[in-house]
C-alpha cells in the first residue's frame, strides 16, 4: 500500500509571480518602515479549507507582501502552491484553489528577514519524513537558527532553503521518539527565539507558540472547524468565531479525536512583542485582549500629555499614524486633519523609475493636502522612526505646501537596538536614534520640534503603571536592549552571516 503522504505535490513554477528584481524596487519610503516576517493560517476539517485559508491570508497581507503559499491535504496527497507576490496575484483564481483539494490546509504570507526572497524560501515548507509529510508555516525568527543549521549540515543534513524554518523540519526528522507530537516537541525544545508555528501532517493540524509568547497566535472556529492564525482580523474576514489566544509555550493539536494540548516548557513570564500594538497588527485586531486601535489611540493621547505644543491641526502620517493622531487630537482638543493623502495604488512592483523620479519617490505614495495645512502650525504623528529618511521628506513636503510650523511626534519610544525575532531592523549604526541626539535628529528631519513617546508612557497607555525593569510585560528590547531570550547566533565566535545564500536561481 502506498503511503498516504507519498505523492506530495510541490508546485515550483519559476514563471509565476513577479521577479525578485521587481520585488526589490522600492522608494525610500518603503526602506524606512518597520517590517515583520509573516503571518500564518491553518484550518482543520473544512471542505473549503484552501479557499478559506486564501481569504485568511488576504486579511494577513499587511504582515508580508513578498510571497504567499498554501499547502492542503486531501486524505491521500499533499498539494502545494507557493508564489512570489501578493495573495491576490495567485490565490484569487478559481483554478489555483481547485489545485488545493482537501479539508485541511495551512497558509503563509512572507516578508523575508532570514533568507532571500526566492521561491525555495516561500512557505509553508514541506518535507517527507519517516512518519509522513509535514508542512510548516512559521512567523518569527530563531535566535539560534544559524548555529543549529551549521550543526545539522556538519552531520549530513542537506538544506534546500536559506530560511531558519527549515531547521525545524530537520530537528523533527532526527528525533528518535516514536509519536509525531513527541518528535515535534523535541524540535521545539532545541530552538530559541520567537515563533508562532502552524503545521500540517496527514492527520493533524498543530499550533505552537514560543515560551515567551513573543509572536501572536489565536484560535478560532468556523462551522465547528478549528482555525489557527496570527490575528483575529483573519477570523473576522471569514465570519469565524474567536475562541482564545494560544498560550505562550503551548502546543495544540487537532485531529480526528478532537483537541489535545501540551505544555512542554516550564512556565515563564509572557513577553509579547510591543510592536504588534505599535505597528504590525491590523487596527481592527484584538491582541491579547486589547483592541489594537484603542491602544494606538491611547499612545496618541499619552503623546499629547507628554509633549504638546501650541498648534492648529493634528496631521497623521498615513496609514500607520492615523489612530495615534486621532487619540492626540481627542486629548488635546486640536482638530484632526488629513494633511497628507496616500496613493494606495502604488505597489512594491512599480515600474522602475528614473533616478530623478526615485529621488522624489515619497510623492509616489504621499501627497500634501495644501488646503488643510497651508499657513497653519501642524503636528505630524507617526508610529515610529527608523532611519529618518521618510520623516525628512514628509516634513519638507509639508513646508513646501505652506505649513507655517511643522512639529513631529512619534507614538513609540526611540528605537535604539536591533531586533532578532522577525522584525527587519538595521543594526545600531543604521538606527537614527541610536546614533544621534534628539536635537540632531530634529535638525536632520527639519522639524520645529521632535518628541517620542516615553517608555513609561507607552506602558501607561497599555494600562500598566509603568515599565517594571525587573519584570517587563512586553518584549520592548528595541527600546531598552532587554532581550527576552538567548541570542546564541549573535554570541558565536565563528562568523555567522546574517543571510545564507547557497544557490542563485531564477524564480
UniProtKB/TrEMBL annotation:
Domain (Glutamine amidotransferase type-2): residue spans on this chain: 38-257
GO MF, one example: magnesium ion binding
Enzyme Commission number(s) from the entry: 2.4.2.14
SUPFAM superfamilies, A to Z: N-terminal nucleophile aminohydrolases (Ntn hydrolases) (SSF56235), PRTase-like (SSF53271)
Associated pathway: Purine metabolism; IMP biosynthesis via de novo pathway; N(1)-(5-phospho-D-ribosyl)glycinamide from 5-phospho-alpha-D-ribose 1-diphosphate: step 1/2
Active site: residue positions: 38
Annotated CDD domains: GPATase_N, PRTases_typeI
Cofactor binding description: Binds 1 Mg(2+) ion per subunit.
Keywords: Glutamine amidotransferase, Glycosyltransferase, Magnesium, Metal-binding, Purine biosynthesis, Transferase
Entry annotated with the keyword Transferase: yes
Extent of Polar residues compositional bias: 487-499
Listed name of the protein: Amidophosphoribosyltransferase
Source species: Bradyrhizobium ottawaense
Taxonomic path: Bacteria, Pseudomonadati, Pseudomonadota, Alphaproteobacteria, Hyphomicrobiales
